[in-house]
Amino acid sequence: MRRFLLAAVLMTVLLLATTAAAEDYNRVRSPKPYSWTGFYFGFQGSYMKGTSDWLPEGSSQHLKNDTEGGMGGFYIGYMYQTPVKFVVGIEAETNYGRLSSTSSCPNPAYACHTDINWIGSMHGRLGYALGRFMPYVTIGWAYAGADTYVNYLPTGEEYGSTNSYLGWTPGVGFEFAVTNNFLIRGEYAYYDFAKRSATIEGDEADIRLANHAFKFGLGLKF
Fold first, then answer.
1. Is 195 exposed, middle or buried (0-12, 13-18, 19+ CB in 10 A)?
2. Phi-psi region of 110 (alpha: psi -120 to 50; beta: other; left: phi over 0)
3. Number of helical (H) and strand (E) elements in the chain, helices listed first
4. Is residue 14 classed as helix, strand or coil in its secondary structure?
5. pLDDT per position as a tens digit, 99-152
6. What is d(CA 212, CA 165) in angstroms, rounded to the nearest whole number?
7. Residues of the chain where predicted confidence (pLDDT) is lower than 50
8. Is there a contact between 101 and 52 (Cβ–Cβ < 8 Å)?
């Protein structure tokens, strides 16, 4: 009987040790699936190219300037991964820099300028979790600040105004979790702003801005 009890104890210990070793092995071979749920923030750089469309008051002649430049900024948001791998979220971003354009005005004594100084947005995101890789689409509200002015070429004097613009922005991109907390992303976004009346040297002009943005970002998720 004593030998039987000793054998039973040894078998129990061996079974428990084998089970624990198997669980450890399974954890190594089959790690816990990555979850995109959580708050995050990051920094991004972008190259942007677009147009600044002027329509002076009382004129039917549009003046289109090509805007181009780079911006840097940050983003912050929250994501939730559903049981069926769709990821929904909301994000805010702000970008600073300068997108500039210059062209001749209808009056050749003047040069017309547009300088976009900042662009931001508040948008929703919808992605699909493929492990640590997530493609996504976005759509939301956009806002920007820009200087529109003319330069009187004979004297170099400048006349214009600074205005804010509102619009919308769709986008598409991907995100990759390098570690559980460190994320990288690439994104394309289009910013389309409604026309805004600007006062330039006592005259009014309707200004409409639109931009294509190609972004790269580095983020941290909590």
1. middle
2. beta
3. 1, 9
4. helix
5. 988 877 777 788 888 999 999 999 999 999 999 999 999 999 999 999 988 888
6. 16
7. 1-23, 25-26, 28-30
8. yes
